[in-house]
Records
---
Amino acid sequence: MPFEVQMVAHSFLFPSNFGGQEGMIAVHLVSCYGHAIYKECVYKHEWFCEPVAELLESWAGYREWRMEEFPESPVDLTFVSYPVVYEDIIMGIEWGMALSTVATILAFIVLAIMLRNIRQLGLVACNILTGIGTTLLIMYPVSYYVMDVNVCAPAMLVAVALAMSIDYSLFLLTRFNEERLDGRSITQSLEIALATQGHTIVVSGATLALCFTSMLVLPTSTITSMAAGAATAVLQSVLVSLSLTPALLLTMPRFFTADRMLGLTLDGTPFGTYRRASSGTVAQFGATIDRPTIIENPQPKKESIWAHLGRCSQRGAPVMFLFLALVMVPFAMALTRFSYVEDLTPLMQTTHPATKAFISISNIYGQDLTTPVQLLIMAPSQKAMASREWSLATCHMLQDLATKVTDRMHEEGHDYTMTTADFNGLMIFRGGCLADGLKFGVIDVMPAVHMYGMYDMVADLLSNRNQTATQVYVHCQVDLFSEVGEAWMRAVRASLPRPEVIRQPLGGHQDADSANYVPYGRWDDVEIGALHLYGMPLEQMDGAQYTLRRMPYVGLAIAAIVCIILGGSFGTALIPVRAVICIAWMLVVTFGASVMVYQLGYLEGLGIQALSPSSGQALFWISPSVAVAVLVGLGLDYDIFLMDSVMEHWQSGKDGKSAVVTSLDQAGTIISAAGVIMFLAFGSLLIGASPMINQLAFHLCVGVLIDCFVTTKVIIPCAMAMLDLLPGNANFWPRKPPPALTEPTVEPLPPLRRLGSLRNSLSDNARRSAMSPHGVRSMQSPA
């Protein structure tokens, strides 16, 4: 091989920016069956990908062997490929799913404390498994026939199904157990739980599903597939909670209600003893399905800390509102500095060898090798592409394109000059047209390149099998994901020649190359073909910009959904408005905190990788886009649960201030437990090594804590106290207050909204119980 050709190859494989000590050997793999190795082997693991996987494993094995046999060797081998990179991403997501599953154990411990019956954890487990299983069964044909499902969608699906199943089970079973403790039969308790908490579950599930559905308008398949999976998971969680749980309770009533020693006995089983209370009535752990339990000498319940907190917040409501507004200011200011990155590295595990190799190759060879931008040129025919005239005309077009891009960048205020050397392909190399030769000084090495088959080898890599299309690598002199890099990509796209005439077949015979061909004009009186600029940086830039540009419309759609569903459910005008304001406050604080952590590095001093800025000192664009719908749904979940209880107490004759305090006394601990469970489920994702998963987990953890311990405990009581000062019935306008009741357990109140036929099936005792507030119960035993 001539020395000049060796120098060309050496300058590419061993760049001088690292002293020529870092080098690369590129291996191009082609399937013997004509399949696309890249896509099929990364995403679908087809059968013909096995040799590729075996080759990668053998390379990794060789590297390990060489490091063991030659520990003092100065040569360090690193293997990286796109299948390995995407496998790294998939492993990070699967690891996050595994951590979330492990955190379920801690969530079940909290559930056991709240339910005081370990046996009922079986009901929750059945809900979770059934909800996830049915959702996967639905999404499988959707992924096969309707849309491509992103690899992140299953993780999102499982997390949402897990969270909602636990929340809905907690709401339903705690109310069921409360009614049982008040001495009601299993049938009565279940009817009341379905009539009250069933309303909460239906409204919450419908709102959350519609919030996820609104994200389908976003033009990114990653987000739309995640949204479709999450919406399906929510609906399945609602259906399973309202059908499977009651069915199991009615099928095995004695088993699931035997709570002596937290259910760690044989009571309610064929091996247990059927014990009776001294008065001859059935004891609580052995109750039948229709007979009530008599609770003798009930102990008065002390007011909870959440009721005290709500009452204290109401006393200084104006001051508290001012304080909350001041708290929001620094987070809002930080949010104005929000920026995002579109690189692949936030999706990759920080500790994985493939990530280090990917970053190392990017640093050595630039992004042209790891995330290239390419120009696809589709020639009019195979004959045209093989001609010298087409090669020259295409080269001159690219040289002119460099000038246009430079002018456009200068017009936009960017100090950037694109040169002809930024194009490399079959027709151009280092700015010169290969049809005129490849010269080093005065020596033309092009004949040697043809003689040794190097040109044909490169042509096989850059062209399709039919030799009717070729790709040109387009070099960017700055970071492609920076502001200037994105402006450069837009300038290249805008400067491409535009079609002038469309030639349609007019009859007679035309070959496949020319049928329905769209030419881009002529260069040097030669048709060059169609041009398409593509590459992962362009896909990420377009996806991020289109998504974030439409997010305000998604936010307005979510706000409208909240107002319509909550307004129609509660029949009031201000409850949905207050809910939207609370959600907006929570989102500002949550995303402002994420900017402080992942952009400004406020917690970097802790030395925790998951709470430190990642690549680019910015947030990955997908994490806040996905977090919005989840945070809105979870916030509304707890808001609706609390307001259902508030409406119940208001209908019993309490004013707004007293109703919310009483509701906090009864539901505050349940909401806090649900928040702790969600925090454990999402917080486990912070242990993972994927920056995108870490950022998403941080958003969800902060948002859940704010919803459970600030919004429901402080903001809602303050808002209701402020509105209670207005004339009339501002909190519940336009609904009219119910008549005052002197004996709430004797005279039934106007019925709450109920679930279908359950409203008519309630017995008189159950109906009076459902209408009376949770803790304001008659002390006399049911007849």
---
Amino acid sequence: ERYEEKRQRQQHTTMATQKSKNKKTSNTSTTTKNGSSSSSSSSSSRGDNNEKQTGTTKTRNNPLAIITASLALVVSIGIGILLQTKEISTTTTNTNTPKKKRTTVLPILDEFFPSHSLDNAWESYPLLSTVHSSPLFNAASSPTDPTTIIPTVHVTSQPNITQTSINRRINTFQRIFSLSNINEIFSNPNLVHLEDYKVAKKIYRNNEEFVGMVPEKYISPEDVTQLFNMGGFSLIVNAMQQRWKTVGQVARTLQLETGAAYVSANMYITPGTYDARKADSSFVSSRSAFEAHWDWMDVIVLQISGRKLWSVAQLPIVEYLSTRDVKRKPTLHEMDVYMQKEHRYREFLLQEGDALYIPRGWIHNASTVGPDLVLTSLKEEEEQQQEKEESIEYWSEPSLHITFGIEHMCFTTYEGLILYAVRLFHAQKYGRTGGVAISKQACPGAALDISWQMILQFAISDAVRRGCTVTEEEEEKETSTTLVYNRHDIGCQLRKSVPHGDAWNEIYSIIQNQQPQPNSMYDTYVNILDNLNPTLEHAAQFVHRVQTLGNEGNLETFCIPGETTFDILYCPAQHVVSTLSHVKFMQELQEFKIFAKDNFDVVVKEWEKYLVGYRRQGWQRDDAHLRGVHHEPPTLLNEFYDLS
């Protein structure tokens, strides 16, 4: 009753405030009517979620349900603040929108990022898609340099957009997953902490950020509730595409639209900044689960409810299009570079209904923030104190977002395509043996002979990891540094995803006409082959690298299409140089290049067949997990609003 009374009072205040603003800016009542519709329709959608609760008695008996039952109601209280009914700018900020538009539709990506705005951003720079008028943090108190604003597209850049359309997008985001669904996830008694989910918070030690996690493998629902409500810990649930049907629908459709090998999904719930342990109704400045980091996969973040403050690098400070096996924690020096204002975008708030794209390799960080910080940027000074006092529930609202990981691994990049071409070449030349390079007798423990196929594949993989590095140049008489890398180097080209399907072929064709580069699939493929000159030393260096991964227990972070065992790991790296002939290696390399160019169509056709089988196996695995938690296998979406 208290929450409902608060919600109604908040609605009344919001409508009155909006009506007052409208009188100042317009002689018509159109905006006011839209504002009323916005509040009522949004509150109605929140109410629909709340009806799923099973009653007071059941909630009291389930501590996790306390989070769900109370906080799901809290979401509706702040809707008038989040959904302003004034007209949002229809311009796109700093997104290098292509002059020519593609005609092939990508229903999900085009809904998340309207006006084909993701086409140019893909693997090139981060992109924010927002339904809110002012996502910039602290925008009111400091001047804004346009070059420091994250490339942004407003949902209203589409023709004839209405507040109803915005509400529809927000409501559909919440149909993917919402706070009211948490109890069902944790009704599975077989969930293992640190594997299926994590309870974590960012901590500091010697001025360095770390992730602090509870070490136990099983945490009771009661303890999860305590850690979340009282300890400021975040809750992260992994592999949501295997636990919730609608999440699986979006993930599977994104997989086909992006041409990725796989799309995973994780859920992140971070508590609000109101500190319930203190009697003076105070707030902590921020709360976060992770330290600043970069991912080895492209990510698309959907903010379901609440809000989070994000900081994103302008350039890949450490690794451009990072591969999984080079993923690591940034050093203190790299973090210092990231914190320099010329190397990261202005901080911005990601709010419900917003989407964010970050390419792999870009450092980023996110946290919930309190009214002392946010109100400074969004409210007039005289309104701040009253807003803070009246909205404890509003600032107690947790942030819920889902991150979809666009995973290419070794399959859907140019590295994967060319490694698969090596496999086809040696199958044609040598048959199943692949051509013996080093006898298994020379490698104690090896079950099979070491083939020339493996030697050549390792030499190419070494080029991927050494030929695309980000370096620093000190500026004269300046304390800052300039980051230098060339995304057109062969190593960088090998890391890029292959344009797969009609839409991406069209996108790359358009970009090629605007920026003459070898951007089409065939041109890039041939350009890589012409400039690919690995040596036996490169192969030996990579043998050592993979052996190190194996010794560290991280061998699964590296893969070769179609290969499941690496007998070469039993060979000392020096064997590759001392045993093999450089002349023979160069002969193999040249013959492969000729084969790969002459048989491009065959290579692509066989590679695509291999991908179909790989994806089918992943979907069958996910379907089995979904059936295990009483969910039907997901169907592909023809459009985002078909979500079931």
